[in-house]
Q: What sequence folds into this?
């Protein structure tokens, strides 16, 4: 086998994940050698590093040093380096930066304030970047595991808390099980196509005859891979782990799971559908259709009954996975490439919008915890608009955006998704989706009811008024982006559109 | 004035929002109130200017402003006025300063948020009336929900949370289905949300009949909930009773008109054939609303609830008039929208005044109020008579035109509808006058009532402002009707150009004076 020589672009393409890993290693070393007194600077170091990588990537991107042509397949077609992966690299870097930003104040004075925490976040982000760029099932699996193992550990880092232990164990066991499905599905795809590379799969299975026995292996492969992804994005009926894990994990990690992990899984799934498109994928249409309906409906209906805000957001994030699956269904139902790209665009934009509004909401929960107000239970939010009008306003903004009220980011995201689905004639699916957002309005509004329309509870402990600068920055950036993506989405829509024209 | 006219509509729409932004940085109660009032008054004065420069000879949109907003979806920021939206914009900006004045002493808690929400609501409503882009309309339409939700939920009565959530969910339920229809039309019209282009496209290439039915149903549901029409009205009494006075005034005065406006602006001209097929259903529901609303009003013991149910009845008239599809009836419906905003708005203001003094709204707690509050009784009487439709006051003009137009309509059973609707006028007299009698006349035997203070100058000021228009429209409606005439004729002829031939293959019905 003669390998083509590696070029500059091969390395430029993996700049972001490599830099993240390097930063993680630097943090690990610093953690060991730094005196304990300086350890609190570790988080700031990781955050600064992440922001630096973000800036460097932006320079590489804008100066077009990054790629020579539309798409560069690096490392013998293992890894794609195109607008699509750049877009998701940005998204994961922002997710990691926001998570780090709220972790620093969250960890202060906590028992589990350790260097590993930051290292694991950076490693998870590196795994996510690999998933978005993977052009080969093996790389995809590698990225997925890098991310997942880091997240398993992060979920259980709060060792004193039995709920955190439960979260980690549950996530690990069920996650390993789902990984088994995914791996077996990949094996089936390999068996049918004779390759793990997306392009080769497309070539080998492009003109598959209906009577060809390989088709059954292919079907099994598609089904099993879908199960694996459905687990990662917490789609019903594979969502059982999500509420417990979301509740038990440290709050910033919950935010990362709901946004980064979900975005990575969708990024990889959409990449498979777009680059390895073969007729046979359409068999997943019915599965996705049912999956989308189930996920939206289960998520929203169960969220109605929640008293714990983290659990409520867990179920709401299941519901949002359902809306995204509407987009994936639209993608699979697309009659031509152009409408498939529209659906993919919609998914990308929604993931970006969801990133800011969801992480913003989790940042408010962190702020509540620092104020010694609790923050997990809805009662903790009673009368918040009087004592902390800033937090109440921000949380309302994020929740209204998730409800899909214009002119906020969540509305534009939903509008884009539903528009893509209507374009592909999925009328009933869209009707169910919009009715679901009406249901979701009820529980989002309930939180607002507590904050604005209930009197403040009697407290045994005095509350603080904490103003952590990093936390303020995280919430403000999230809020600003939630408004900007809703009011002036053009710039971002253009980026997303351009990205896909250059990609895949 | 040239530069001003160039952005006149945008200024009217966004001045309240600018006021809200200023208020965010203010601290003193009095300054907050003053800034809110000034923003509202400025918006009103500009809309008077709008009324004056509006050319009544044209049926097209005027003073149009257009800027690209989201080019990726061909969404534009496009606003303008025509004869249909002109009066509603004027009504909205007129009520704006009045509600701020009315809450001058009634609202004392969380003033800043209250006024921010009020101004935001005002921008939402004005924007929805002025929008010429379907997407923009939807954004403003939904934007109204949030401030109203907070106004009811934070400053409302004892069951405010229930009422606020019910209001939000009902409205959202209707509007999300409309969103799907909007997206469908976007694709059908060739990737555009531009209202003018869409109407042109839908007129030259009408949609298939079955599609029209579905899409009309989606639009009509959203608007029927907002109006509210008979089976969808249950949110209204709750919202009205729990809302603070200013919220009720805006809700009844403007928000409900959003529903009827939606019918005449979008649902009917987009899907004329479906609209004609829906005439019997809508007319019957409107009639049920007229009579049922009146009967339920009659048995209320809470004045505010009585006024709330009377809205169901009054808006039944508007819907009946719109779907009679004759120039007279549609003009009447349009003027009746304004009338209802004025008289019901004034009624809610009056109820608010008395509630502020007595902290009760039950009819049995009052009696003989005309003795301690003669001025209040006089205002109340005039407004009640206007609501009943006494000739010489505004209500008469609207109801008469609607009944006349319905009677002349070529729709099946139109004459029967007109006769049945006329009974609603009688019922209105019954419940309004009976309520007036129980509150104002008889012995003033309750000690709390004997000491009641009559109207203060501020209250006289804002009630007089409404009264001027009540009498003006009643005596000389042409000032307002002339501005709308051409647009209404244009609407009616557009609708009739799509009327299907009658089922038997007889000669097509001729419509003298209606055909363009």
A:
């Amino acid at each position: 086998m003669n390998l083509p020589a590696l070029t500059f672009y091969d390395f430029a393409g993996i700049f972001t994940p490599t830099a993240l890993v390097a930063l993680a290693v630097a943090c690990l070393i610093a953690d060991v050698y730094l005196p304990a007194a300086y350890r609190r600077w570790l988080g700031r170091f990781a955050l600064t590093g992440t922001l630096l990588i973000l800036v460097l990537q932006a320079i590489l991107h804008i100066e077009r040093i990054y790629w020579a042509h539309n798409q560069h397949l690096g490392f013998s077609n293992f890894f794609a380096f195109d607008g699509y992966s750049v877009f998701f690299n940005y998204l994961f870097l922002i997710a990691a930066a926001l998570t780090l930003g709220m972790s620093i104040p969250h960890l202060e004075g906590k028992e589990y304030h350790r260097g590993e925490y930051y290292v694991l976040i950076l490693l998870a982000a590196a795994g996510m970047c690999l998933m978005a760029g993977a052009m080969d099932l093996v790389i995809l699996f590698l990225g997925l595991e890098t991310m997942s193992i880091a997240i398993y550990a992060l979920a259980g880092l709060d060792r004193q808390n039995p709920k955190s232990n439960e979260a980690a164990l549950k996530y690990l066991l069920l996650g390993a099980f789902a990984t088994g499905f995914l791996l077996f599905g990949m094996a089936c795809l390999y068996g049918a196509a004779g390759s793990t590379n997306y392009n080769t799969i497309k070539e080998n299975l492009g003109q598959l005859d209906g009577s060809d026995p390989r088709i059954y292996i292919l079907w099994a492969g598609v089904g099993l891979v879908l199960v694996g992804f459905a687990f990662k994005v917490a789609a019903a009926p594979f969502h059982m782990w999500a509420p417990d894990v979301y509740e038990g994990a440290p709050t910033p990690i919950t935010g990362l799971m709901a946004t980064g992990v979900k975005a990575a899984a969708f990024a990889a799934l959409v990449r498979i559908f777009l680059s390895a498109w073969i007729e046979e994928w359409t068999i997943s249409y019915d599965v996705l259709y049912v999956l989308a309906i189930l996920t939206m409906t289960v998520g929203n209906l169960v969220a109605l009954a929640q008293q714990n805000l983290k659990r409520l957001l867990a179920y709401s994030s299941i519901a949002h996975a359902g809306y995204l699956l509407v987009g994936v269904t639209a993608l699979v139902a697309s009659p031509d490439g152009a409408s498939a790209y529209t659906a993919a665009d919609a998914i990308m934009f929604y993931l970006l919008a969801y990133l800011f509004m969801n992480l913003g909401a989790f940042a408010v929960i962190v702020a509540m915890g620092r104020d010694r107000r609790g923050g997990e239970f809805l009662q903790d939010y009673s009368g918040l608009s009087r004592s902390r009008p800033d937090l109440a306003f921000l949380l309302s903004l994020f929740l209204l955006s998730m409800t899909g009220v214009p002119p906020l980011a969540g509305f534009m995201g939903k509008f884009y998704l539903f528009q893509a689905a209507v374009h592909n004639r999925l009328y009933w699916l869209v009707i169910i989706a919009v009715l679901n957002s009406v249901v979701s309005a009820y529980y989002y509004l309930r939180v607002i009811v507590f904050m604005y329309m209930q009197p403040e509870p009697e407290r045994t402990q005095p509350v603080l008024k904490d103003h952590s600068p990093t936390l303020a920055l995280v919430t403000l950036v999230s809020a600003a982006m939630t408004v900007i993506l809703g009011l002036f989405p053009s710039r971002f829509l253009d980026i997303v559109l351009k990205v896909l024209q250059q990609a895949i | 004035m040239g530069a001003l006219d160039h952005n006149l509509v945008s200024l009217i729409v966004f001045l309240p929002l600018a006021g809200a932004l200023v208020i965010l940085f203010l601290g003193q109660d009095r300054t907050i109130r003053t800034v809110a009032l000034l923003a509202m008054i400025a918006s009103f004065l500009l809309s008077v200017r709008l009324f004056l420069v509006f050319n009544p000879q044209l049926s097209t949109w005027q003073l149009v402003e257009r800027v690209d907003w989201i080019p990726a979806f061909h969404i534009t920021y496009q606003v303008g006025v025509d004869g249909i939206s002109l009066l509603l914009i004027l009504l909205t900006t007129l009520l704006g300063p009045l509600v701020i004045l009315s809450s001058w002493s009634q609202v004392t808690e969380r003033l800043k948020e209250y006024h921010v929400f009020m101004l935001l609501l005002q921008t939402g409503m004005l924007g929805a009336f002025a929008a010429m882009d379907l997407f923009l309309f939807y954004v403003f339409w939904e934007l109204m929900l949030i401030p109203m939700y907070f106004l009811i939920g934070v400053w409302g009565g004892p069951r405010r949370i229930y009422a606020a959530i019910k209001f939000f969910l009902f409205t959202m339920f209707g509007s999300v289905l409309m969103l799907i229809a909007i997206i469908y039309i976007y694709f059908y019209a060739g990737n555009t949300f531009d209202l003018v282009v869409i109407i042109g496209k839908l007129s030259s290439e009408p949609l298939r009949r079955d599609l029209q039915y579905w899409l009309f149903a989606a639009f009509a549901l959203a608007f029927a909930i907002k109006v509210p029409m008979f089976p969808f009205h249950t949110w209204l009494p709750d919202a009205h009773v729990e809302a603070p006075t200013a919220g009720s005034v805006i809700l009844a005065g403007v928000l409900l008109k959003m529903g009827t406006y939606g019918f005449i602006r979008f649902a009917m001209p987009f899907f004329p054939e479906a609209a004609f097929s829906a005439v019997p259903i809508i007319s019957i529901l409107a009639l049920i609303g007229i009579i049922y609303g009146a009967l339920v009003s009659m048995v209320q013991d809470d004045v505010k609830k009585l006024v709330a149910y009377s809205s169901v009845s009054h808006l039944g008239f508007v819907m009946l008039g719109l779907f009679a599809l004759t120039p007279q009836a549609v003009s009447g419906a349009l003027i009746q929208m304004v009338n209802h905003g004025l008289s019901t708005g004034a009624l809610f203001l009056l109820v608010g005044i008395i509630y502020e003094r007595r902290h009760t709204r039950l009819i049995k707690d009052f009696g003989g109020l005309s003795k301690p509050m003669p001025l209040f009784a006089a205002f109340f009487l005039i407004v009640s008579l206007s609501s009943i439709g006494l000739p010489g006051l505004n209500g008469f003009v609207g109801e008469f035109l609607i009944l006349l137009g319905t009677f002349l309509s070529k729709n099946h059973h139109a004459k029967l509808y007109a006769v049945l609707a006329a009974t609603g006028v009688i019922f209105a007299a019954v419940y309004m006058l009976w309520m007036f009698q129980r509150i104002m006349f008889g012995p003033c035997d309750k000690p709390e009532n004997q000491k009641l203070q009559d109207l203060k100058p501020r209250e006289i000021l804002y009630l007089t402002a409404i009264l001027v228009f009540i009498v003006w429209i009643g005596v000389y409606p042409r000032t307002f009707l002339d501005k709308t005439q051409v647009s209404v004729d244009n609407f009616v002829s557009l609708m009739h150009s799509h009327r299907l031939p009658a089922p038997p293959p007889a000669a097509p019905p001729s419509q003298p004076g209606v055909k363009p």
